[in-house]
UniProtKB/TrEMBL annotation:
Superkingdom of the source species: Bacteria
The protein's name in its UniProt record: Putative hydrolase of the HAD superfamily
The UniProt record lists the keyword Magnesium: yes
InterPro entries linked to this entry: HAD-like_hydrolase (IPR051400), HAD-like_sf (IPR036412), HAD-SF_hydro_IA (IPR006439), HAD_sf (IPR023214)
Organism of derivation: Halomonas organivorans
Gene Ontology molecular function: hydrolase activity
Cited Pfam families: Hydrolase
Gene3D superfamilies the UniProt entry points to: 1.20.120.1600, HAD superfamily/HAD-like (3.40.50.1000)
Length: 253
């Protein structure tokens, strides 16, 4: 196996987003509940204004569990699009709104409006305080890309300006661990895998595919227990803030 010390200097860094640059759980839970509740409330007002309240309340007749079930069914029926979460949500919402009793055109408009709300809520992530200055500094030495399976509208976040390339892997129907999203990021950055490092929190979706391509990897493992030594080229970190020290150490080897 190649020893890290025999590797050539790194040129490019690719970053996972959710749970690597910020804690995603709270925002995701609020977004999931929030956009569905928003749809239920706004739709009730709209129907009342049109004297069509006899349809009842949307979320009472079709609670959020029905929406989640519909999304799972769509992902199973369309395996290629299973990672395209925006498409799945739009389709599921539209189908439920039609089932509720709205005409198809109105169902689409309400589904798209609810997804606007979804994206606004989804953007309320709080990057760890070290992330912004860290990316600004790393961008002076490395070419940077982001690769996410999530459907966050990343280009709307100020933080995205640090990345030359941002890949929404689910929307290109190649969610991690599919190697194609990594290869696309590297091709766009003009970097070869052996001179690149991927940084992410998921062993299965971030670390394994990166290592298989010959990239180095920094695993943001938090307090995940482990009893074994890391494979060659994999570096375990507790938090993203430890990345600059790791890169400095590798640069000295
Ligand atoms: Mg992640």
């Amino acid at each position: 196996m190649t020893r890290p010390s025999s590797r050539r200097p790194l040129q490019a860094l690719t970053f996972d987003l959710d749970d690597t640059l910020w804690d995603n759980q709270g925002v995701m839970a609020l977004t999931e509940q929030g956009h569905y509740a928003w749809l239920d409330e706004r739709l009730a007002e709209w129907l009342a204004a049109r004297d069509e309240s006899d349809l009842g309340r949307f979320a009472e007749r079709l609670p959020i569990e029905a929406y989640q079930r519909r999304r799972r069914e769509l992902a199973e029926r369309h395996p290629l699009r299973r990672g395209d979460f925006t498409w799945i949500r739009e389709q599921a919402l539209c189908a439920l709104l039609e089932e509720f009793g709205l005409p198809r055109a109105a169902s689409w408009l309400w589904a798209l409006a609810a997804m606007e709300r979804f994206h606004a809520l989804r953007l309320r992530v709080s990057p760890y305080p070290e992330v912004e200055p860290m990316l600004a500094e790393l961008g002076r030495h490395y070419r940077l890309a982001s690769i996410t399976n999530g459907n966050l509208a990343f280009h709307r976040l100020a933080l995205s300006r640090h990345f030359e390339v941002s890949i929404a892997a689910g929307e290109m129907h190649a969610p991690k661990p599919d190697p194609r999203c990594f290869l696309m990021a590297l091709a766009k950055l003009g970097a070869s895998p052996e001179r690149a490092m991927h940084i992410g929190d998921s062993w299965q979706e971030d670390i394994l595919p990166a290592v298989r391509l010959g990239m180095q990897a920094a695993w943001i493992a938090g307090d995940t227990p482990h009893g074994e030594a890391m494979p060659a080229g994999v570096h375990r970190l507790s938090h993203i803030r430890e990345l600059p020290a790791l890169l400095e150490k590798l640069g000295r080897e």
